[in-house]
Prior knowledge:
The chain is built from 20 helices and no strands. The protein is an all-alpha fold. The protein has a single domain, classed as Up-down Bundle (Growth Hormone, Chain: A), CATH 1.20.1250. It starts with 8 loop residues before the first helix and ends with a helix.
Amino acid sequence: MAFLSSLTRTQKEAVGLLQIGTFLEYFDLMLYVHMAVLLNDLFFPKTDSKTAALLTAFAFCSTYLLRPFGALFFGYVGDHLGRKTTVIMTTMIMAISCIVMASLPTYAQIGITAAWLVTLCRVAQGLSSMGEILGAEIYMTEITKPPARYPSVGLIGCASRFGTVAALGVAMLVTSQGFNWRNGFWIGAAIALVGSIARTRLRETPDFVDMKRQLKKVIEDAEEKRPQDVEELKVVREALEREKVSWKTIYAYFSFASGGAVSLYFSYFYCGGLLKEMGYTAQAIIYQNFFVAITELVGMTIAVFLSYRIYPLKILKFKMLLFIPFLCVLPFLLSNSPTPLLIFFIQVVGITLGLSSIPANAILYSHFPVFKRFTYTSFIYAISRSLMAVLTSFGIAYLTSFLGPWGLYFIFVPLIFSFLWGISHYEKLEHRTERSFFGSLFQWRGAPEKTSSSICDASMEYKTVAEK
């Protein structure tokens, strides 16, 4: 917790409020996901096992498919009205969707309408989560400085995993102790409402406020002193607002963002399906996933706190170099009558060493323009998650049915190469390496950090135009 001593009181308060909000958001979001084996029977018509598997995949994908629209909406709100407005709105949307879910009649009561309504609620939750975690992480990126920035942003990701653990805990109570599943959604809705109110205490980020203030001041000064330059300044402003990012940076961020959905589906749903084939009940699968989630949370928390002392991209590189040998032997492990204990080991390794950008998210965001940071990152994130949710949930099902465990290579191998290339690209942006892609994979020491700042560059351009 050494990094906390370098934060101001306002920054510490923001860390706490954003973590609480993200925890609640992901608790509500994942509550249905991890109880899908139970709730699908309540809200969807009874079907055979293969159709049930497709319904589970559909429930998983419905959270992601419309995220690009949410990214465009919340990206616009975040870049024009502010980061604070966005994180308050997302929590309110999640609270409303949970209230609907908690009071929704089942398929037995209202027929197919129940299936449509629950799907709409899942879509709303997916849209809400799109603005939530990115809004919170961008907020912390813009109010802190390295190296405290890395764990401050990383803790937001830890809060989302803690929400997953809590959701699995409630799912365990529902399946083993007779706890009413509706009460879980009511609790989530109530706390989300409280979290929305608490977030009104947040202040807007300095980067966003300063850019807006400087933009306004320069134009006002020009109107008073040199009115003929106002149009020129407006052109410069519009050019900055439309500032482009190189396709390499876009693809690198896409590579990082794509990994999360794959690791999530493989560790919890694909492996959960293997356990079901072994005769595990829904209760037993949820119980095992609960301990997998705890292990993931512990591993992620360790990585986040290490990022205060160790450069985050080095942590990701080290994890990938451990994950590759595991992937090489994975089909052999799954082909030779795996035991539940072996499946647990595979789940733990897959989720702790898998394709996750935490704790390097702050580095990824800092290389996008302030005026378009929310829009760029949220839209790329949404597209990657939507695409990978479909390719993973349906692709793994069909590939493994024809090729067995070897079909996993068709998903993981391209993603790992893209992920490693993304690390190399961001190391170059951070002036950490000048080596080639393969050469940089084994480079552990680099030049001093020279993180760029879009706000400073934009401010200098405004001042230059004003002076002219």
